[in-house]
Amino acid sequence: MEGTIFSLIPPIVTIALIIITKRLFLSLGVGIVLGALLYNQWHIFDSVSNIFNIGVEVLVGDGKILIFVLLIGILSSLLYLSGGINAFSQWGTKVAKTRAQSQMATIFLGFFTWFDDAFSCLFRGTVMRSVTDKYNVSHSKLSYLIHSSSAPVALLIPVSALSAFIISIIDGVLKSNNIAEYQALEAFLLAIPSNFYTITTIVLVIIVAYTGINLGQMQRDEKRAIEKNILFDTKHGKIPGADESKLPSRNDGKMMDLLLPVLALILVTIITAVTIGSAGEGSNSPIELLKNTDIITSLLYGGICANIIILVRLIIKKTSAGHLSSTIFSGIKTTLPSVTILFLALVTAQIISSLGVGQYLASLIQGNMSIAWLPVIFFVFAAFISYSIGSTLGTAGIMIPIGAEIVATIDITFLIAIIGAVLAGTVFGEHSSPLSDTTILASIGSSVHPIDHMMTQLPYAVLSSIASIIGFLVLGFTNSILIGLGVSLVAVVIGIFFLKSRQAKLKST
């Protein structure tokens, strides 16, 4: 079953069930069981053992990110109890005086949390939610703003954790294919303009925040938020962080109650990342340091330190033990469903990956074709693989080596375009996939159900992807990255304003 057309069955069934039933636990469970049965040739006991082993492997290998998510949930509740979030909200509404300004502030804060996309999703959701709530911005809109300016920003900056991993992949590819025309960092930097989806997504999210253009379900959610002050939909189940409004909040909260724990989280994360990275071999440059570091461990230490600091401040203020314990429990309780979803998504991704979905799809494009079609083909296949397994790095690790192998024997000048197309496809797939960790983390940070976040972000992601496809077609036949990028940007701007005018006509009829 591995590496054949049958490997597509589990991801297709899982995604179809998610869309049809809107029940993540059921859909992911079915995908896990079906994938394990296919992998083990329908032997039930072997499949059970396989699922158990992968579950243990995920807990051991990815347990830190699960704990970090719980720590962020606890931190969010403690910050609410301290009154720090309320103090920040009062300050934020003085600085951001309109709905548009609160949304723009959310986006641009992402340029200061560039070093890790997972942290960016959780941190900005926790901090900015109190500000955008004041202006009745729906949590669906907040999660879209956050998610669309996390990984895209991280991939524009070569000294982020995500970029460092990509650079390390490129370095291995160049060496294995004896490509001497480029260095790894050079190839990555040259590929940034050809990452059409990332660039058009950032442009699009800024336009949406500034103009208030809402597409599909987002229009319904925003209308409900503005007219009825209902910021999220509870019909799909428990909303992460929704119980915060029921928690007590101190009246003597100060900005420092928020800033100290958050700054500690950032500083401890950076210091730990630098310490771990500098201990590796050849860590003489920022890029080598980032390649050698462990960002998840760094985030875990940062989360622990931030929680300790806010607890100490609350104890100094003589906060009752009852309030502290109930707040910590509330943070765990409201975050636990999302941690469970993240765990199931990671198990699903591993099982689907073991079936060889990437290898099968890649094999379909290694035939006779015009090289002009390669950029758009690699974008589409990378997008589908990333959508299926929910992993940017996993997809890049599969597709970049394949692309390099093809262009090394045909036309090496297309290498940069192929790298950009793969990265563009992986981010689109991640933005659209219910299996993506950042989809779930953006939902947790924004306190919205992952299904609502996925369905409201999808129209914007599709619009950027269509603009990117047009751009990659132009790139392929003109062999010009700049022309392709220009066409993509024009296409996304025309597309968003065409949809806006169409909505206006529908309202008037």
Structure, described:
This protein is mostly helical and 509 residues long. It has one domain. The chain has 23 helices and no strands. Helix 11 runs parallel beside helix 23 (481-508), helix 18 (374-389) packs parallel to helix 20 and helix 18 (374-389) packs antiparallel against helix 22. It is globular and about 70 Å long. The N and C termini lie far apart (53 Å). The model has no long low-confidence stretch (mean pLDDT 82). Residues 153-477 form the Na+/H+ antiporter NhaC-like C-terminal domain. It is found in: Cell membrane. It comes from Ureibacillus chungkukjangi.
Write the layout of secondary structure elements.
Elements: H1 9-21, H2 24-39, H3 44-82, H4 84-95, H5 99-109, H6 117-134, H7 139-147, H8 151-156, H9 161-176, H10 184-191, H11 196-211, H12 217-228, H13 255-278, H14 286-292, H15 295-316, H16 321-354, H17 357-364, H18 374-389, H19 392-410, H20 415-432, H21 437-446, H22 450-478, H23 481-508
Helix pairs in contact: 1-2, 2-3, 2-16, 3-15, 3-16, 4-6, 4-13, 5-6, 5-11, 6-7, 6-21, 7-21, 7-22, 9-10, 9-14, 9-19, 10-20, 11-22, 11-23, 13-14, 13-15, 16-21, 17-18, 18-19, 18-20, 18-22, 19-20, 20-22, 22-23
Transmembrane segments: 12-39, 65-85, 144-170, 190-213, 258-279, 299-316, 336-358, 370-390, 402-428, 458-475, 481-499
Membrane topology: Multi-pass membrane protein
Subcellular location: Cell membrane
